[in-house]
């Protein structure tokens, strides 16, 4: 049996058996289930509360003109403000006092703090009524005006080769965000695992036994691939478990069609193969690109606390791209900066994931992927040359100058 | 003086010696030719050559920083020499030889969080053993060394001595032709050190060639057939222990006698080096033979004068030879 397979097997099995792996794998779907629950709760219970607004209209201009809505009803009781206030029974009921002079302040009395949407609703209706009254006073026929008034709603539609299809801007943003965040996070999480694994082998001194059986390059690649497979396993389990929860919830609650996750999954559905395919490619190539560097860092130090000076230049470009992506790039996915960042292997995994939902030109995707492959071959080569020397160096602080020297050492 | 422990009397037993002569044949297990290894700033090995014969227990000696570990790493193909060649069993050293070498590094270590059994199997499989075969052999070893209950334990749950034992098993499980042990006895308590020593000799008896580096000269004298002494990146001495000791004999003897103290006037066939008086009129003298004389001449000279209790040649210990050779080169 090939020795590299043995190493991959060990790295994989020892990791997936760990409690932390099992906990993490269960935690994420549990969180998603929790999110469903919260959304379902918010969507069903809270907003169904009925508010009754008792309108005391001193100006006599608003009476009967408020329109009842799903969760708001308007009453016009006779009597004074104080009587109305005293007769409030339900916590959800309110009193709206409209003064005689329109310039005075309108006040809403309630037993509980009113919600913003409720006050907005009342304010909007009052403005409409007031402007209607003003128009009538000015001699304008409001019925004719309503006819002229246009009602524009923007529906976004994307032109593709297969015809137009309607898209939701929100879901596209979400997809773009999610891709960037997932890639960014997993490169760090699993890259750091590779690094920690190398440090563990170095500090426990088993490294010398292992490299007397296999080549350092085999050990490094075995570890990287093993950890990578752990990451992929975790993602697959997350997706499967989350989808199962989504399916279960989707068929069991009425609120599912308003559920953002449902909408997200639904939107992903139309192009899922392409998007997931790109995600997996950039996940794997980004992981290989960076974890080789992480492995080299691990080999150059004696403990995790010493990694700082080498970690900084590795994490910087990724962090920069990430911050830029979530703050700006997703709004300008075809800007020159976005295009450049999605070509350079250092930033491509994150930057390209931001652009993927917006249909990247095929040639750009091709160039980016090709550069990505060249990029990880290059970092793996550089890293392995540092690694093979670093793993056998104990007890002295390593400088950048030293790393360069190691690179040029002969076998 | 300490007496030889009974079990090592077997080492001096003729049948053992005969077997030794039979196992060590002229075939070279390891032939190291003109190895040079340089690291930035310093030379770790400077034109080192040595021969380890098949079936030998070979001691690689030298003070710290002499280049022992560098040489061992080259033999293990962890690093490659800048120039020079290594031949393993007559073939130029290559990847296929890795599985035939077992290596116990000076800095011991195993995966702390991995179960012993599983870890041993993993290490054996990296050396080309099948899983089933590894389990079978491991059971035998665990049985032999009283480690049966360790299978499911993690390394971090074992004492340091126990870890060492486990690592020794990992080193030899794949039954290598050449076993390289870097300071094998460090970290063992005296009892376990004896156990391991026994095992090393038994493996050697079964045909394995042993190359071990150590500072402990008494174990060298007990175990080694031949040695090489490295100092400041160069080999300064090598050969079978017996030959080396012969070369370093310097005609010094100790004589003990009872009776009146003898006054020496210079006409005797030796130079007096030291003289001591014991209880009951017993005396001990240390002497060096004058040119052309033998121990017989000493006896002939002394016999008429006193009653001789003992005459013994003082053969320099490996330790003395080591110190002498090393201190010659500052």
Automatic annotation (TrEMBL), chain A:
<feature type="transmembrane region" description="Helical">
    <location>
        <begin position="224"/>
        <end position="249"/>
    </location>
</feature>
<feature type="transmembrane region" description="Helical">
    <location>
        <begin position="21"/>
        <end position="43"/>
    </location>
</feature>
<keyword id="KW-0812">Transmembrane</keyword>
<keyword id="KW-1003">Cell membrane</keyword>
<protein>
    <submittedName>
        <fullName>ABC-2 type transport system permease protein</fullName>
    </submittedName>
</protein>
<feature type="transmembrane region" description="Helical">
    <location>
        <begin position="310"/>
        <end position="331"/>
    </location>
</feature>
<keyword id="KW-0472">Membrane</keyword>
<dbReference type="InterPro" id="IPR013525">
    <property type="entry name" value="ABC2_TM"/>
</dbReference>
<feature type="transmembrane region" description="Helical">
    <location>
        <begin position="337"/>
        <end position="358"/>
    </location>
</feature>
<feature type="domain" description="ABC-2 type transporter transmembrane">
    <location>
        <begin position="19"/>
        <end position="383"/>
    </location>
</feature>
<dbReference type="Pfam" id="PF12698">
    <property type="entry name" value="ABC2_membrane_3"/>
</dbReference>
<dbReference type="GO" id="GO:0005886">
    <property type="term" value="C:plasma membrane"/>
</dbReference>
<dbReference type="InterPro" id="IPR051449">
    <property type="entry name" value="ABC-2_transporter_component"/>
</dbReference>
<feature type="transmembrane region" description="Helical">
    <location>
        <begin position="171"/>
        <end position="192"/>
    </location>
</feature>
<feature type="transmembrane region" description="Helical">
    <location>
        <begin position="280"/>
        <end position="298"/>
    </location>
</feature>
<feature type="transmembrane region" description="Helical">
    <location>
        <begin position="365"/>
        <end position="387"/>
    </location>
</feature>
<keyword id="KW-1133">Transmembrane helix</keyword>
<dbReference type="GO" id="GO:0140359">
    <property type="term" value="F:ABC-type transporter activity"/>
</dbReference>
UniProtKB/TrEMBL annotation, chain B:
<dbReference type="Pfam" id="PF13732">
    <property type="entry name" value="DrrA1-3_C"/>
</dbReference>
<keyword id="KW-0536">Nodulation</keyword>
<dbReference type="InterPro" id="IPR025302">
    <property type="entry name" value="DrrA1/2-like_C"/>
</dbReference>
<dbReference type="InterPro" id="IPR027417">
    <property type="entry name" value="P-loop_NTPase"/>
</dbReference>
<dbReference type="InterPro" id="IPR003593">
    <property type="entry name" value="AAA+_ATPase"/>
</dbReference>
<dbReference type="GO" id="GO:0005524">
    <property type="term" value="F:ATP binding"/>
</dbReference>
<keyword id="KW-0547">Nucleotide-binding</keyword>
<dbReference type="GO" id="GO:0016887">
    <property type="term" value="F:ATP hydrolysis activity"/>
</dbReference>
<dbReference type="InterPro" id="IPR003439">
    <property type="entry name" value="ABC_transporter-like_ATP-bd"/>
</dbReference>
<comment type="similarity">
    <text>Belongs to the ABC transporter superfamily.</text>
</comment>
<keyword id="KW-0813">Transport</keyword>
<feature type="domain" description="ABC transporter">
    <location>
        <begin position="30"/>
        <end position="257"/>
    </location>
</feature>
<dbReference type="Pfam" id="PF00005">
    <property type="entry name" value="ABC_tran"/>
</dbReference>
<dbReference type="InterPro" id="IPR050763">
    <property type="entry name" value="ABC_transporter_ATP-binding"/>
</dbReference>
<protein>
    <submittedName>
        <fullName>ABC-2 type transport system ATP-binding protein</fullName>
    </submittedName>
</protein>
<dbReference type="InterPro" id="IPR017871">
    <property type="entry name" value="ABC_transporter-like_CS"/>
</dbReference>
<keyword id="KW-0067">ATP-binding</keyword>
């Amino acid at each position: 049996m090939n020795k590299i397979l043995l190493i991959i097997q060990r790295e994989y099995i020892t990791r997936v058996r760990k409690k932390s792996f099992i906990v993490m794998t269960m935690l994420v779907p549990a969180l998603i289930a929790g999110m469903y629950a919260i959304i379902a709760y918010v969507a069903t219970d809270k907003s169904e509360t009925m508010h009754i607004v008792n309108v005391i209209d001193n100006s006599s201009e608003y009476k009967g003109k408020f329109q009842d809505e799903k969760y708001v009803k308007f009453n016009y009781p006779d009597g004074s403000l104080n009587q109305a206030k005293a007769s409030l029974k339900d916590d959800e009921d309110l009193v709206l006092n409209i003064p005689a002079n329109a310039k005075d302040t309108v006040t809403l009395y309630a037993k509980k703090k009113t919600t913003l949407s409720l006050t907005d609703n009342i304010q909007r209706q009052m403005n409409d009524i007031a402007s209607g009254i003003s128009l009538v006073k000015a001699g304008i026929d409001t019925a004719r005006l309503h006819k002229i008034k246009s009602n524009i709603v923007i529906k976004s539609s994307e032109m593709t080769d297969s015809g137009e299809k309607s898209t939701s801007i929100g879901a596209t943003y979400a997809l773009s965000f999610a891709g960037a965040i997932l890639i960014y996070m997993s490169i760090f999480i699993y890259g750091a695992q590779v690094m920690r694994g190398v440090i563990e082998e170095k500090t426990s001194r088993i490294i010398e036994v292992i490299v007397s059986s296999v080549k350092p390059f085999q050990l490094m690649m075995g570890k990287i691939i093993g950890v990578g497979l752990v990451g992929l396993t975790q993602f697959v389990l997350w997706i499967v478990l989350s989808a199962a929860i989504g399916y279960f919830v989707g068929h069991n609650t009425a609120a599912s069609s308003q559920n953002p996750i449902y909408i997200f999954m639904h939107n992903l559905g139309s192009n899922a193969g392409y998007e997931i395919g790109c995600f997996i490619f950039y996940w794997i190539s980004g992981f290989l690109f960076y974890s080789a560097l992480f492995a080299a860092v691990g080999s150059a130090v004696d403990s995790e606390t010493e990694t700082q000076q080498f970690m900084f230049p590795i994490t910087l470009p990724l962090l920069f791209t990430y911050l830029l992506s979530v703050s700006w790039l997703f709004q300008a996915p075809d800007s020159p900066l976005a295009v450049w960042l999605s070509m350079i292997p250092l930033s491509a995994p994150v930057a390209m994931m931001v652009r993927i939902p917006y249909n990247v030109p095929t040639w750009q995707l091709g160039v980016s992927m090709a550069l990505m492959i060249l990029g990880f071959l290059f970092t793996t080569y550089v890293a392995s040359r540092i690694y093979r020397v670093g793993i056998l160096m104990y007890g002295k602080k390593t400088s950048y100058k030293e790393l360069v020297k190691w690179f040029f050492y002969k076998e | 003086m300490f007496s030889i422990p009974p079990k090592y009397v077997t080492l001096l037993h003729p049948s053992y010696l005969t077997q030794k002569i039979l196992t060590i044949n002229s075939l070279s297990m390891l032939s190291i030719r003109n190895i040079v290894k340089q690291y930035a700033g310093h030379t770790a090995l400077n034109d080192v050559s040595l021969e380890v014969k098949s079936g030998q227990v070979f001691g690689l000696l030298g003070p710290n920083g002499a280049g022992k570990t560098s040489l061992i790493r080259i033999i293990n193909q962890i690093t490659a020499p800048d120039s020079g060649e290594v031949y393993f069993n007559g073939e130029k050293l290559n990847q296929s030889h890795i599985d035939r070498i077992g290596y116990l590094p000076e800095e011991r270590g195993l995966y702390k969080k991995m179960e012993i059994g599983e870890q041993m199997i993993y290490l054996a499989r990296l050396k080309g053993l099948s899983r089933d075969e590894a389990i079978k052999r491991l059971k035998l070893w665990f049985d032999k060394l009283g480690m049966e209950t360790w299978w499911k334990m993690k390394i971090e749950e074992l004492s340091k001595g126990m870890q060492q034992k486990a690592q020794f098993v990992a080193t030899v499980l794949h039954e290598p032709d050449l076993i390289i042990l870097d300071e094998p006895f460090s970290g063992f308590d005296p009892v376990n050190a004896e156990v391991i020593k026994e095992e090393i000799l038994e493996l050697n008896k079964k045909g394995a060639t042993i190359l071990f580096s150590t500072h402990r000269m008494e174990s060298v004298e007990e175990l080694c057939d031949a040695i090489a002494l490295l100092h400041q990146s160069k080999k300064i001495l090598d050969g079978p222990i017996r030959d080396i000791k012969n070369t370093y004999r310097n005609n010094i003897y100790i004589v003990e006698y009872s009776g009146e103290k003898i006054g020496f006037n210079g006409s005797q066939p030796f130079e007096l080096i030291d003289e001591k008086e014991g209880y009951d009129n017993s005396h001990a003298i240390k002497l060096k033979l004058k040119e052309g004389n033998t121990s017989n001449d000493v006896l002939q000279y002394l016999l008429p004068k006193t009653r001789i209790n003992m005459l013994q040649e003082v053969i320099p210990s490996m330790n003395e030879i080591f110190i002498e050779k090393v201190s010659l080169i500052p």
